[in-house]
Amino acid sequence: MTILRLLILAPVVCLSLSSLADTDVEISIQADAPGAVIDRHIYGQFAEHLGHGIYQGLWVGEESQIPNVRGFRRDVVEALQALQIPNIRWPGGCFAEEYHWKDGIGPRDERPTRINTNWGDVEESNAVGTHEFFDLAEMLGADAYIVGNVGRGSPKEMAEWLEYITADNNSALAKLRRANGREAPWNVPFWGVGNENWKCGGNMGAEYYADVYRRYTTFLKAPSNNTPKKIASGGYHLDTAWTDEISQIGSKIDGIGIHYYTMVTENWVDKGNATGFTKDEWFAHLAETLKMDDYLRSHIAVLDRNDPEGRIGVYVDEWGSWYDVEEGSNRKFLRQQNSIRDALVAAINFNIFHRYADRIRMTNIAQMVNVLQAMILTDGEEMLLTPTYHVYEMHTPFHDAVSVPVESGGVPSVSDGDTSIPMVSASAAIGKGGDLAISLVNLSPETDVSLAARVDGFVARDVSGKVLTGEEIDAHNIFATPNAVRPMPIRVSIEDDYLRLTLPAKSVVVLSVQRSSGQ
Ligand code: AHR
């Protein structure tokens, strides 16, 4: 391998961490062995009508004192723009299965109030409907991933929604869209045919749902240049029998939407705390996160059998940490804090998704604002960026980059009681400009890692990087100190064939290695 010898002395984060002595870890990266493209849609978001995810989180209305752009809060929109969000899944989740799209069009003051029976029986004003959602998506430069109502809806209602969005003719629905202020059709590249139809989407069995899916998709018609990929609901967790049934539907299925939350509970009641947790809980939560790998492998094995050409994509369209709600908040609003541990959860999952990039076409973290593992928390006028937000921003070089293999077989484990987890998680990819992006996670809560990364097949001109870490295992941002956890530059050196750096305990690092122009 050829790497220009240089030492980068960027301003360095000063960490007074109570960490144990360093552990030496070596990995190797084959930069000259290109694999699958990491679809940028792996970095997708999910915004459901749930708690303050939409109302107050994103939408405050045009009359609000909070600065807004056509009703969407300006601070939140601007922060989200920096994430280069590729797509937003909307309007649910379980909410989608009770959502009637015609409630959300036309003059806002004439829209009916409904009750959000899934999420706390609160009033749903329908102020955010189809036009508002597409306005947000356009402001963020994100593609739309609409989830249609299978459970309480009808094939007619779903077909009409697609027609309203995409028709470029003089049909009554196209005229209605124009009368409501939108002349041109919107693009809708992704369409979910129901959500969790094994539960809140109708408590169906796989075989029954497969027939229902066939029936609904028969009538989903759109112009040929604006035909969405159709995503079927996946089954519950490791239900590979469901995947088996659904993946035999045939050409009408483009993807299967599977959900896996990191949640340490036997009973859905004691899901643990987002902050103030113990070291044992640190290990248990990260061990649970790593199960995503087995989970994906099992589903992909079924798809490889039924769809060897790889036509059907895996859409992990809900994932992330799920804890007990923040004290004092509505139990059904799923509001939780977000710590450095969640930043690791996100980065570990990215590294797993990158490994299966040939089959994974999209993922959507749950959820974008104020709900579960959010990018942003708001409270009235205040807003903050969570550690998870920063991890998304740090990983933008991976959007549509070409994955390359990382050999990390010799990485030691760290243990706590019976729970062992690998000390380092890593992935790498060549970005569109030819630079090498490397994602690194130190899973140990207390031991720094002296990392040597051997890079083959790449001549480096320069390297820079950012580290996200914190003093405590539950380091997080609050409105009074919104920048307690934020990315800082990290020192990296290139010595002979190796990149060398210290990965602090409990950290996420992303490096950008610039390719020499002579290469
Ligand atoms: O993300 C919250 C909920 O979790 C979604 O509405 C549902 O699909 C899942 O069970």
List keywords for this structure.
globular, six-stranded mixed β-sheet, alpha/beta, binds alpha-L-arabinofuranose, 21% helix, 519 residues, 9 helices, disordered N terminus, 28 strands
Describe this structure as you would to a colleague.
The protein has about 525 residues and is an alpha/beta fold. The protein contains nine helices and 28 strands. Helix 3 crosses helix 4, helix 5 (about 205-220) packs parallel to helix 6 and helix 8 (about 340-355) runs parallel beside helix 9. About 20% of the residues lie in helices and about 30% in strands. Alpha-L-arabinofuranose (AHR) binds near residues 94, 366 and 372.
Radius of gyration: 23 Å
Structural class designation: alpha/beta
Termini separation comes to 12 Å
**Largest β sheet strand count, sense and barrel closure:** 8 strands, parallel, barrel
Number of helices: 9
User: What portion of residues is helical?
Assistant: 10-25%
Describe the global form: globular
- Uncertain spans: 1-18
Beta-strand portion reads 25-35%
Question: Brief overview, please?
Answer:
The protein is 21% helix and 28% strand. It has nine helices and 28 strands.
Draw up the topology in text.
Elements: E1 6-7, E2 20-30, E3 44-46, E4 68-69, E5 72-73, H1 74-81, E6 87-90, E7 114-116, E8 122-124, H2 130-140, E9 143-148, H3 155-166, H4 172-179, E10 190-193, H5 206-218, E11 229-233, H6 240-246, E12 255-262, H7 279-306, E13 313-321, H8 340-355, E14 360-366, E15 376-379, E16 382-385, H9 387-394, E17 402-404, E18 406-407, E19 413-416, E20 419-422, E21 424-430, E22 436-442, E23 447-456, E24 460-468, E25 488-489, E26 493-495, E27 498-503, E28 507-515
Parallel strand pairs: 2-23, 3-6, 3-14, 6-9, 9-10, 10-11, 11-12, 12-13, 13-14
Antiparallel strand pairs: 1-26, 2-18, 4-5, 7-8, 15-16, 17-21, 19-20, 21-22, 22-28, 23-27, 24-25, 24-28, 26-27
